Amino acid sequence: MEVSAEDDNKLRNFIVGDVPTLYYIPDFITQTQQDLLLNNIYQAPAFKWKSLKNRRLQNWGGVVHEKGLLPQNLPPWLINIIQKIFDESRLFPSAINHVLINEYLPNQGIMPHQDGPAYFPVVAIVSLGSPVVMDFSPHLSLTVSTNQSGNGMEDELSCTGAPDGNLQKDYNPFSVLLMPRSLLIFKDKAYSEYMHGIKDCPVQRCDRVVNVGEFLKYRGADQITGSKDLYEGTDVDLNSINRTTNRISLTCRVVPKVNRKLFKF
Ligand SMILES: O=C(O)CCC(=O)C(=O)O
Ligand SMILES: [Fe+2]
């Protein structure tokens, strides 16, 4: 589908940081929508949860295989949210057909990684529950300094996207504060040239967050509720967030190759 300049501009308002393919949309869903999603997630049958070492997850939409998706119908309670993401982002080539729901306790996270090749390279993440900091770090190959000898090799290295050969300048690590009810979308460079991860710490520093406004709001709310008093005389750093409850995320993606006969011989 063609994206008009006007639509493109709408999303452009939500670019945060220096990588132009990362968007953060605060208050993407209402409190009521968040509660409904949480109710449905926690009402899912126990067998839907898969426990990993550092989180547990529910897989909706089917089994992702290296040859594509062996599809299963998405439950009705996920349809509205994925339709809203599809309609408002206009970044997906076809309907979102896979949703991974991750649950993290305050001391849990996810190792830096890049999402697998089976997915179309656009990811939309809805956050519920506790705020959390997601870290983006450039792939190691992009942070090595390019040769200084001036022997013409810069061009070869610049195929990674930095025409002046100064890769370090363009590929700095950064973080995004993911508040409940927000939507994070990333694609292209932010998808394929950076890894993303969440530290397994209940207190997370916000020094490198690119959406500083969200952190100021968090701090403001924290002060209004008076919980700042709790920090008096303690070592708690006011540049950090405190994860006091679980965080749930919905990672919504498209698996372009759908194969209903994956296991038929
Ligand atoms: O929980 C999140 O926000 C990230 C999840 C993620 O990166 C993934 O499922 O690949
Ligand atoms: Fe991921």
Automatic annotation (TrEMBL):
<feature type="domain" description="Fe2OG dioxygenase">
    <location>
        <begin position="95"/>
        <end position="256"/>
    </location>
</feature>
<dbReference type="InterPro" id="IPR037151">
    <property type="entry name" value="AlkB-like_sf"/>
</dbReference>
<keyword id="KW-0408">Iron</keyword>
<dbReference type="InterPro" id="IPR027450">
    <property type="entry name" value="AlkB-like"/>
</dbReference>
<dbReference type="GO" id="GO:0046872">
    <property type="term" value="F:metal ion binding"/>
</dbReference>
<comment type="similarity">
    <text>Belongs to the alkB family.</text>
</comment>
<dbReference type="InterPro" id="IPR005123">
    <property type="entry name" value="Oxoglu/Fe-dep_dioxygenase_dom"/>
</dbReference>
<protein>
    <submittedName>
        <fullName>Alkylated DNA repair protein alkB isogeny 6</fullName>
    </submittedName>
</protein>
<keyword id="KW-0539">Nucleus</keyword>
<keyword id="KW-0560">Oxidoreductase</keyword>
<dbReference type="GO" id="GO:0051213">
    <property type="term" value="F:dioxygenase activity"/>
</dbReference>
<dbReference type="Pfam" id="PF13532">
    <property type="entry name" value="2OG-FeII_Oxy_2"/>
</dbReference>
<dbReference type="GO" id="GO:0005634">
    <property type="term" value="C:nucleus"/>
</dbReference>
<dbReference type="InterPro" id="IPR032862">
    <property type="entry name" value="ALKBH6"/>
</dbReference>
<keyword id="KW-0223">Dioxygenase</keyword>
<keyword id="KW-0479">Metal-binding</keyword>
